[in-house]
Design a protein that fits this description.
The structure holds two protein chains of two kinds.
Chain A lengths: L2 H22 L3 H21 L3 H26 L6 H4 L3 H24 L8 H11 L4 H9 L1 H19 L21 H24 L7 H17 L11 H24 L11 H25 L9
Chain B lengths: L1 H5 L12 H16 L3 H27 L3 E4 L10 E4 L1 H21 L13 H22 L3 H19 L5 H32 L4 H7 L4 H18 L8 H7 L2 H26 L6 H23 L4 H16 L11 H33 L10 H4 L1 H15 L5 H15 L3 H25 L13 H16 L5 H7 L12
Antiparallel strand pairs in B: 1-2
The chains are: A mainly alpha, B mainly alpha.
Chain lengths: 315, 501
């Protein structure tokens, strides 16, 4: 066994162990920490499988943003950690749930092992039509060209996510700002951390978005990094979330899907079909769309984390 | 086969298929951006447009006698995504585009923006998400790609769940959260199945998959996971636990859309899965399992409806029962009687959509006028608000399966198919379900039509009563669907299971 293979086996065991720990963790907070570690280990697994794009997304979204959301939820649940419904879960129910999970997991494992090692793939076809898009990264081509319809609609789902979160606000807070107000005197360590990290992070985020055309990266990963930077600055209470009624905020939240949708419809007029790109103009158009998508993701994720409006609107 | 060629080439007028998805999606974005009263204006203005698209698509299919196909971005499957519309898609589109404006007109009273134009929470959320449901359902009815359909399911979940807790009362939040858990669990199972199919065949396109699929472990597991996930979203017994609190607690206009249309979305995908993706799989056992669960749903749902004390909960439990009927078509939809069973299943989906929407809107009017919806307190209410109770009763007629009603046509077709197939057990269940439905409707209507008129807090507005009545009449009118309607349903219907065996 080579060193890399030994590392792979070790990694696999570690993933399993952390997953088990997450399931058996004593409380929501501990489970969340386990989940974040699990996500980071999983992104290492993706790197070992040479799926760097997936690894980046797993780290940024699966572990990063989801982790922040879950920690926020766990913090809010503290003090009310066992609900009556939870206490009512009998041993039998738990056993049944565990059995069902094991059964599904075992069936999946067995079937995946049965699948041919070299499965059918669309990779050659993607590479063949990659030149039409002018891009170098086939993953970006799948997301913004071959299956652009999916990606545009996924961005609409993000808008619905924000509407859904905001819909939980009290009526009197509607239109107000979510999250905490800017602090008079921010906590020094956090503020220092945010002031140092944010400029570097913004640079990294823009870079990851920009190289996405040809290398692993792209709108989602870059946008998630930018989003994290805004979150850090807000958490340090150096700045506060904007009002939910602010026109610029609404515009930022819909810009990505709106530009994507408009480009898709324009394709019907100038390129002979919905979501078609005119030959030769594909790459600039794709980068144009991706710019707005990155921006929208960078604004949407912090808004999801900030939660529903919690302060009366200022006029 | 001609159908083979159409998998790759767009048909004339195919580009029309993108519009019922893109236009409401644009409406969602614009409504959220402009906010205030604009959300309502945009939502209501786009509804007739949507009806126009649906009718245009249906007439193109009718004229050509072929499914419509459109390839997005010029990238043909398997690399790209295709949209396809057959007869079933078209009737579901038209139904949706009729029920949506009804719910919208009804909801104007409840979700009005104040005169000074200040944006309010509930109206903005309602009008925005109503359009999102429209976009999601259009995509479900037209999607030709399994992952694209997953995106549609996600859109539908995130559009529907917040509507349940629009009131903001604690119990509605609990109901919405439970709904969200079931829906996400269902979507996850569906996605797992899609990933397995992609791993095994390297394509997500429904037509391409259907040509390659063989009965092997990966396919069986994928079929099981996807069906289980979709059943959770359709609320088929015993995965129905989320439905009654969710549908009973939502505002009436939202309940009408959720109960009438949203659960039909995931049902539509189960039909797509077994008839269009997996026709090569022997479907006798899975079909029997689905129908057995459906039978249990009919009996348990009706029995629970009989015991409810609140009108909206009773109607919600009757949805649990009526969903059961939809699944009786599965064991019957192969063999010479397949067309009848298929038509029966579709007819049940349509008539229940109209009837249930009418009943929820009526129940909303009753609750607003009386200030409560306790069944024990309904005495004489039918005399005070006759049109409302007429709508409720006509909707109930369809649920019971009495002629003339769409529900009768559906149950008659399904019963005929089950007797011709020698599977009379389903016919017995249908008869029992009809009797039980009669029972729970009697509990509501009998006291309402006798006794003294109660004092109404405020009489229902006539225009809103008329909306409910129009929906109920549509459910009745389905009984007079001409034979050409059933011929239309068969356009693009692939032969199920046994035909290819």
């Amino acid at each position: 066994m080579s060193v890399l293979q030994a590392l792979d086996v070790g990694l696999a065991f570690l993933v399993f162990a952390v997953a088990a720990w997450t399931v058996f963790a004593p409380g929501p907070f501990a489970a969340t920490v386990g989940y974040v570690v699990y996500g980071l280990l999983l992104s290492l697994v993706w790197i070992r499988l040479f799926a760097v794009d997936v690894a980046l997304t797993e780290a940024a979204i699966g572990s990063g943003v989801t982790g922040v959301l879950l920690i926020g939820a766990a913090a809010r649940l503290r003090g009310a950690e066992t609900t009556p419904a939870e206490e009512a879960l009998t041993g039998l129910t738990r056993l049944f749930a565990a059995g069902l999970c094991l059964l599904v997991a075992a069936a999946l494992a067995a079937v995946v092992l049965l699948l041919p090692d070299q499965g059918p793939t669309l990779a050659p076809q993607s590479m063949e039509r990659l030149p039409e898009t002018g891009l170098g990264n086939p993953v970006t081509a799948v997301l913004i060209a071959f299956r652009s319809f999916d990606t545009m609609l996924e961005k609409v789902v993000l808008v619905l996510g924000v509407v859904g979160v905001w819909s939980l606000a009290a009526d009197r807070y509607w239109g107000g700002a979510p999250g905490e107000a800017r602090a008079e005197r921010p906590e020094p360590t956090l503020a220092f951390f945010a002031q140092v990290l944010a400029p570097i992070g913004i640079l990294v985020g823009v870079h990851v978005f920009w190289v996405g055309a040809d290398e692993p990266g792209g709108a989602f990963q870059g946008g998630a990094i930018l989003a994290a930077m805004w979150m850090i600055v807000m958490m340090a209470r150096l700045t506060e979330a904007p009002q939910a009624s602010a026109f610029w905020l609404r515009l930022a939240l819909i810009a990505g899907p709106a530009v994507f949708l408009a480009a898709g419809v324009a394709g019907a007029v100038v390129a002979g079909g919905f979501f078609a790109y005119p030959p030769g103009l594909a790459k600039p158009l794709i980068l144009f769309i991706e710019t707005f998508m990155t921006f929208t993701i960078a604004v949407t994720l912090p808004m999801l984390v900030a939660g529903p409006p919690r302060r009366e609107p200022r006029r | 086969m001609t159908e083979g060629a159409s998998a790759f080439a767009a048909t004339a007028g195919g580009s029309l298929l993108a519009l019922p998805i893109l236009v409401p999606a644009a409406g969602v974005l614009l409504s959220f951006l402009l906010g205030g009263r604009q959300a309502e204006r945009i939502a209501l203005a786009l509804m007739p447009v949507q009806f126009g698209f649906a009718v245009a698509i249906a007439s193109l299919i009718w004229r050509s006698g072929q499914p419509l196909v459109y390839v997005l971005g010029g990238y043909a499957p398997p690399l790209g995504i295709a949209l396809r519309a057959d007869g079933f898609s078209a009737v579901m589109l038209v139904t949706t585009s009729l029920i949506m404006p009804a719910a919208g007109l009804y909801a104007r009273t409840n979700f009005a923006t104040p005169n000074d134009g200040t944006e309010r929470r509930a109206p903005l959320v309602f009008w925005t998400l109503l359009q999102a449901i429209q976009a999601a359902l259009s995509l479900i009815f037209l999607g030709g790609d399994l992952f694209n359909l997953y995106v549609a399911l996600e859109l539908l979940t995130f559009a529907a769940a917040p509507l349940v807790c629009l009131d903001g009362r604690p119990e509605t939040l609990a109901a919405a959260l439970r709904y969200l858990m079931f829906a996400l669990f269902g979507a996850l199972f569906y996605l797992l199945g899609v990933a397995l199919l992609y791993g095994a065949y390297g394509t997500l396109d429904i037509v391409l998959l259907s040509r390659q699929i063989r009965a092997e472990p990966a396919v069986w597991l994928a079929a099981g996971l996807m069906t289980a996930g979709l059943l959770a979203k359709t609320a088929l017994f015993p995965l129905h636990l989320w439905l009654p609190p969710a549908h009973a607690n939502a505002p009436a206009a939202a309940s009408a859309v959720l109960s009438g249309l949203v659960v039909k979305g995931s049902f539509f995908l189960i039909v797509r899965l077994w008839f269009n993706v997996l026709p090569a799989l022997p479907n006798a056992v899975p079909g029997a399992i689905l129908a057995a669960l459906g039978s249990a749903a009919i009996l348990a749902g009706s029995a629970l409806a009989l015991r409810q004390e609140r009108l909206k909960l009773l109607i919600a439990y009757s949805t649990v029962a009526q969903i059961g009927y939809l699944f009786l078509m599965f064991p019957l939809a192969s063999g010479p009687w397949s067309a009848e069973a298929f038509s029966g299943g579709v007819m049940q989906a349509l008539s229940h959509a109209f009837a249930k929407a009418a009943m929820f809107l009526s129940a909303g009017l009753i609750a607003e006028s009386l200030g409560h919806d306790r069944i024990a307190g309904l005495g004489g209410a039918g005399r005070a608000m006759p049109v409302t109770f007429l709508a409720l009763g006509l909707g109930g007629l369809s649920l019971m399966g009495l002629p003339p009603s769409g529900g009768f046509a559906a149950k008659w077709l399904l019963m005929k198919a089950s007797i011709e197939a020698g599977q009379w057990v389903w016919a017995v269940v249908m008869l029992a379900g009809g009797l039980l439905a009669g029972g729970y409707l009697y509990r509501v209507l009998a006291p309402a039509l006798s006794g003294n008129r109660p004092r109404l807090k405020s009489p229902p507005r006539r225009s809103r009563e008329n909306v409910a009545l129009a929906l109920a009449l549509a459910a009745v009118l389905l009984a007079f669907a001409p034979p050409t309607f059933f011929a239309f349903l068969q356009i693009g219907r692939p032969a199920a299971g046994a035909a290819l065996r």
